[in-house]
Amino acid sequence: MRLLWLAATLFSTPACQGREPEPATEAAVPAPALTGSTLIGEYSPATLAGRAPGVPLVGSLVRHSLKVYRLTYRTRTPEGAEITASGAVLVPQTMEPLSVISYQHGTIAPSSETQAPSYYASGTDVWSVVSILASTGYVVSAPDYIGYGASKNLPHPYEHAASLASASADMLRATREFCQQQKVALNQKNFLLGYSEGGYATMALHKLLEEKYADALPVTASAPGAGAYHKSAFARHILQATQPLNFLSSYVWVLRTYDRLYSLKRPFSFYFQEPYATRLQANPFAAVPSQQSQLFAPSFRQAVLNNNDAPLAAALAANDLYDWKPQAPLALFHGTADDYVPYFNSQDAYEAMQNRGATQVELRPIQGGNHFSSAAAYTLGAYAFISRF
């Protein structure tokens, strides 16, 4: 499908001979996103079928061979600088007009940078279950995000809604441009999938596409899984927890990202007790305890719980994604016993969206599932959901 550009230029007509025309007024026209492509490989149905032994029945879905490419494209950092980013695009080998899935990956530690989609590394979700889903008849657009692949020299803006959304949207634009170049027949359907940080990115992308690209990149349906959509409530949950929390190193990353992007400019000792403040200053990914009371500075903890930290509260609120009204169908998948991203994130989103009048939002609890055991059920459930459209 040819990408539909949102362009309109208004010209005034001179009222009489010799009068200079008024300056033209132009609507914002997004520049082409795609800058390059490289074939990674072509994979037969037999090869693909054996790639997801941990997800029962998925291998039986395989229909087509795949060509996998690494794309580079233009996007912008949270600060507004234009950069080159990358991602993978998976193209089924068929003459049928294809829908597109934008797949947003979960958390990748900086030390595991080669797990990003554009490396197409063995054992990753894009290499395994996502490739199998693509082979059923979907082109898959899989952004690396800023901070991985072609942009690995930059810090990843972890759990930052706006840049996760824009990097994913620009990769989706680049994917459609690439398919037009390669004469891959596409229809107008765009599906959005992702789990964990990918679920959060999927929600952010859905919101951005409906706000900015409603005509050019319409959302057909989305199925985010286990995302931390209610950042403000999640912060309070963490800072009043008495049980061990195994994800606190990830939350350190969230705080550092927001401190940087929202110019809070606070020392590590503002957030963290010793000896962890010093250790994290030296290595932001150093090990931390699982008890929040041992990690966070009491003054910081009380300021958040008493709602006295206005700058941080504003940063968290800027990244809340639970309270808006989606137009396209949306299914929220979440394990009810999620021990990393609590279930209330999806419950709160479902209730807030219903209160705003959304009529096509579904809550899909995965009963008894934790953050990791729910992933397989999410994959099958999300595929079944988008197959309806």
Automatic annotation (TrEMBL):
Signal peptide: none annotated. Pfam families: Hydrolase_4. InterPro entries: AB_hydrolase_fold, Hydrolase_4, Lipase_secreted. Residues 129-364 form the Serine aminopeptidase S33 domain. SUPFAM superfamilies: alpha/beta-Hydrolases (SSF53474). This is Serine aminopeptidase S33 domain-containing protein. It comes from Hymenobacter saemangeumensis.
